Amino acid sequence: MSQGAWVLVVALVAATAFGLYRAARDGRFRGTHHVKGADVTEAEGQEPVSVLADSDLDHVLGERATLLQFSSAFCAPCRVTRRVLTDVAATVPGVEHVEVDAEHHLELVRRLGVLRTPTTLILDAAGREVSRAAGAPSRDVVLTTLARVIA
């Protein structure tokens, strides 16, 4: 087998492995991201700080939770995510869906560590990040994660 054929085989194996890895992680809610300035705790006698504090979106928090979606203009998975999150917000009382154009809110994107669109953050009633997903989450995954936040 020639050297070019080996390079092709290695490239195909690497691309397939990366694709499988990406498919397994896309749209799954995993952990949170440390937000600078949002680590004030109630034990210190102060109100918890919302991740949306000091932004023009601070007023749109839901009573029980907020589904915060970062998207961009030409992102096809963002449209799917918008439909899923809008449906979930209409189904679950006290939950709001807020879509943020990442291009127009770069300071917030940087502060929250959003690396790609769509990224969905689930915020509790105080506006603290509870979980996040990169990629388009399914309705069932959103409802399951949201149930843990609300309970």
From TrEMBL:
CDD domains: TRX_family. InterPro entries: Thioredoxin-like_sf, Thioredoxin_domain. Residues 9-151 form the Thioredoxin domain. It comes from the Bacteria. Pfam families: Thioredoxin. This is Thioredoxin family protein. It comes from Nocardioides mesophilus.
